[in-house]
Amino acid sequence: MIKIEGLTILLGSFRLKDFSIEIAEGEFHFLLGPTGSGKTLILESIIGLHKPKKGKIWIGEKEIQTLPPERREISYVPQDLALFPHLNVRENILYGIKAKNHSLKTYEEYVGSLIQVMKVGHLLERYPANLSGGEKKRVALLRALAPKPKLLLLDEPLSGLDPSIKFEIQQLLKTLHASFHPTVLCVSHDFEEAYLLGDKMTIFIDGKVEQVGKRDDVFLKPRSQKVAQFLGLKNLYRGKVLSKEDFDQRWILGINGLRFSVPGSACQDQMEAGKEVDLYIRPEEVMILREGKSVKESLKKNIFEGKISDIADRGRHHTILFQDKEEKIFFEISIPNYAFRNLDLSIGKSVKVALRDESLWVMS
Length: 364
Prior knowledge:
Elements: E1 2-11, E2 14-23, E3 28-32, H1 39-47, E4 54-59, E5 62-63, E6 74-77, H2 89-99, H3 104-118, H4 133-145, E7 151-155, H5 163-180, E8 184-188, H6 191-197, E9 200-205, E10 208-214, H7 215-220, H8 225-230, E11 236-245, E12 250-255, E13 258-263, E14 276-281, E15 286-288, E16 303-313, E17 317-324, E18 330-336, H9 337-343, E19 350-355, E20 360-363
Parallel strand pairs: 3-8, 3-9, 6-7, 7-8
Antiparallel strand pairs: 1-2, 1-4, 4-5, 9-10, 11-12, 11-14, 12-13, 14-20, 15-19, 16-17, 16-19, 17-18
Helix pairs in contact: 2-4, 3-4
């Protein structure tokens, strides 16, 4: 267990107060926040490059915030990777083990497995100047993992890579974590990367932890409009609770003169009539109904008539902008390409849409 409690950092104009986080052993934890929010400074303070004003850091039962960096058993991969240019790949990888005066023989099998998983065996005699960006990333990760740290800190590990190389490193990281189970705290603003690799995540905005949870809980059930907006989620609406349908535990929300029926399971907190709330509609869970086809009973609670006001081809899917017939609301719908073709959609076409219960989430 890694535990950070009440970390307070004052450095120049930057102020961070009472930052706390817990990371289970073997967990891949993401710290997500806007650029310039101080995420890198948090990592540098954890490893011991900056002295916090106050706060405590535990690795297991051991309190480490007063220890020098070399005694904290933490490895750090910065954005610039910081490979040693005068050492070849093999020497870079083994550097941490030698620096701690550990026996290379003891680590031989483990390091060999790392090299195999990260596919750098053919690079061992090369120097950093002769490596591609993706190869440098792999070597930096290997050098950090070789001495078996209690905690691995990653700062934007996939930044600056071409899409194809980025995907390759993502898959290697996933395999690496599944094979060796290092405890990782990764700073990023890449949501796709966090969703693919992360077990849990912390959303950090304006110097404050806004939400902590498993990836699906964070992305599908944001705790506030601020979190939802940071995650780039669309279809956010301010409304009011109108009434409760006691017979099936649903709530009726009023938004811009329209009524939405929401199950109690899709509500973040306790609901009551008159309460103002934020409704989030997940674009990928909205259905465009086929003309003349029967509609399931479960979809009849929220059906709206309107037209398509815009279409955007996103490559792997299409984004449809729907506007109701009374022009009181519009929202985005995300559909795969095959469904787009089958529905024969075009701008201006009249359609009916149904909101699955899975598409709805209400925040207080």
